Amino acid sequence: MTVTTSTIDDLIRNQNPFAGHIVVRPQQIWGKSFPDVPSINAHASNAVFDAVDKVRKRKRETVGITITAEKGLGKSHIISRIRHQLQTGDGSLFIYMSKYDNLNQIKSLFLQSVASSLRAFGSQKVMQWQEIAAALINEAKQWEYTPQQYINMYPGWLSQHSSKAIVHLTESVLKVKPEITNPYIVKAILWTLSPAHINYASYWLSGLELAQSQAEEMGLPNPKSEDREAEALSTVRQILDITSNYRVPVICFDELDIADAADNGFLAAQVIANLVKDLYNSLKQGVLLLAMYPRTWEDQIKALPEAEAVIDRLASEQVERQPIALKYLNSDDIVALVSQWLQDFYEEHQQIPPHPLYPFDETKLRELGKSRPTVRSVLKWCAENFVPPLPPGGKRLPPTPLPVIPPTPPAHPVKPYFDNELVQVEASIDSLMEEKATIADALWLAFTTLTGETVEGVKIEEIEEIQVSTADQRFIDFKIIGSKGKVRIGVSVVQQDGQFIGAALKRLTDYRKFNITRGCLVRSKKINSGAKLARERLRILLQEKGGEWVGLQSQDIKPLLAIYFVWYNSESYELTDQQIFDFIGQEKLAINNPLIREILSDPSGQEPTNLTDDGLPISIPQPIANADNIDLNL
Q1: Strand partners, 334
Q2: Predicted local confidence at residue 614, as pLDDT
């Protein structure tokens, strides 16, 4: 790895490890994150690790911890550190929630976050659901197989015994776990070990409906729509009580400093604080972690009714029930942080720099510490100053002669953030394809930037929110108004199955009630032939109402999701809406997007091609050949 300084300088001119990487995204909580310096704000992460240890050793049942810090000080960095450290051991489960799309249905949203979080890989390189399923079987059967061994054996068991194998295992578990009151939760958890059924099982565990044929095959009753919110918290408690027999649940609530409010007037942080109080009172064991701004704690949490009882649970271990405050960076922190980022950068590119902080000067970095900066501001400074240093004498040496090419215009300020978000979207597209609200928001943003443009013969005049009663909420996401009001397209993104798709199609075909001239379904999956009501409503939409079904393809939605995440984090990125809209226009992200154009084009009256099967996983892990096998002896 012998290199010259000029080689490193060429690398620096073409690669900036800091650009676009100043905000930790949820995907980085789960996957590869930013370089971390464990000594920075170690008091906060250590408090969580100590709490997990106390719960594991039965010194505490439940612990509540709140971390406060100003914007950019590193709350999400700490959470990422906690997640990745916990992943190295097998004594805990990590659950993360950072999106609060509907505060009026927070229990259902929390259940979905629990189910989604437990799909993430744990310490044994399989989903956390699968770790729990294996632990349940091992205890019931007095076996000692690993989750991967069960994953390998399940296809053989199901081929030999069909669903009777799962019934047998469920009954075995219930014999040693008589305190479990909902056997279907156990059955669904056990189904997660089947490579062909993992997505169905986790979908059902999140409180959503399966296609009826799939629900019957797996022996899982679909939830009743009117009872879903009421049952959600009970389901969460039972899931967490089951998991806590084998792992300490660490439940984290991030991104609480938003202005959204529930119908009862409570803001997001207040809604979550009340939820955490309920969880603290009802869980068998666990660690509850919240992260927020100091002002949110002072103005919102302390203003809650019965605030003292809430605070006792949100900061149960802290002196005087105060949250743990993160500290601003000092000079040593800055040097350690930048050094770690550069070490990772140079190792990735197999370079040896002249010194660990190259191309920065340690004196200048230490001077930054005098202003008590945030992590975000330091990384931003590094991104802006990541250039080769001046040579002795103060003049830059002429670069190595290169072929003469036209000068390239300076990069758009949005581009590094967009490129980074696109990488994150690529890494998590399977899960993002199930996030109806996020996809709808990305489409809404794209159409909003096209106001005044004519696309596919439609002059877009306005993107309108649908004002409906509570019963009709969540079904039609927005309305596109165009051509002097003659075109009014109601857009509904529906990735759910079961009764939800039928209910959405009912609204999409009611043109009079919702004042639309065309209903547009956006969906990537087929609608099961056994869903007769939904199929009939689809026929009405396509053949009688002149509506359209636009196939949702991952390659089309990826760039729209990436720029949506840039827009959503624009304040943290210090970007304006105008800059983002200019970038969307410059790159033609919206106007040339096939999904956008298809929604606006004349309806074909046909179902789209390239759909996935109803509820079928996007990818199915295959069992390893020559797996260990044992007979269930049914």
Answers
A1: none
A2: 52
